Amino acid sequence: MSYEQIAEMYGVTKGAVYWQLRDSGQTKKRPDHKRFIPWTVKTEHAHARPVMMLRLLSRKESGDETIPDVKVRMLTKWLGEVREADVVVCYDRSMPPNPASPSTGGFYYSKRRPEDGDSIIRFDPEGEKQPAADEPKILDSPTTGQ
Predict the structure, then answer these.
(1) Burial of 110 (0-12, 13-18, 19+ CB in 10 A)
(2) How far apart are CA 99 and CA 145, in angstroms?
(3) 31 to 57, 62, 72: CA distances (angstroms)
(4) Beta strands per DSSP E along 63-118
(5) What letters, b where the CB count within 10 A reaches 16 and e where it falls short, cover 82-94?
(6) Within 10 A of 106 (CB to CB), how many other CB atoms are there?
(7) 146 burial level (CB within 10 Å; 0-12, 13-18, 19+)
(8) Which pLDDT score is estimated for 67?
(9) pLDDT tens-digit map of 7-31
(10) Which pLDDT tens digit goes with each residue over 102-143?
(11) DSSP 3-state of 116
């Protein structure tokens, strides 16, 4: 039975059904990817390649052994490309389509700065900092070089 069907049966909302099941320990625990995806990502940006790779990285770093080999190879290749291009992944909800996210925008690559350290992302909890005047906000894709 779906949450919707149960909600209809008892005259409650789907959310109420979920909360009851969650509180009784009967729901699957959702993975927490906040370490690699700290932004509130718009729905239309949820399937951009950078965020999909960051989700895979999060799964791998958390010890998930169910990741298919082909996805592990994709992640390894992408991480190498990002490292070689010396970029970090950034997110701006208003970013138009660009080489990192050609269909929907949102995610983009930016040249690594000293303050980025070893992080693969750049995140400012008070809002994405704008790049310096001489630094382009949208950089070539590390995969296509375009």
Answers:
(1) buried
(2) 9
(3) 12, 9, 18
(4) 87-91, 107-111
(5) beebebbbbbbee
(6) 25
(7) exposed
(8) 96
(9) 999 999 999 998 898 888 887 777 7
(10) 999 999 999 999 999 999 999 987 654 445 444 545 455 565
(11) helix
Give the amino acid at 41: V
Cβ within 8 Å of residue 102, ≥6 positions away: none
- Backbone φ and ψ for 130, nearest 5 degrees, come out as -75, 145
CB 45 within 8 A of CB 101: yes
Number of neighbours of residue 10 by Cβ within 10 angstroms: 11
* DSSP secondary structure letter of residue 124: -
Report which of 64, 53, 65 is spatially closest to residue 30, judged by C-alpha positions: 64
Residue type, 67: I
DSSP letters spanning 55-67: HHHHHHHTT---S
What burial class does residue 23 get, using C-beta atoms within 10 Å of its C-beta: 0-12 exposed, 13-18 middle, 19+ buried? exposed
**Residue 73: in which H helix or E strand, if any?**
helix 69-85
Beta bridge partners of 121: 89
CB 88 within 8 A of CB 119: yes
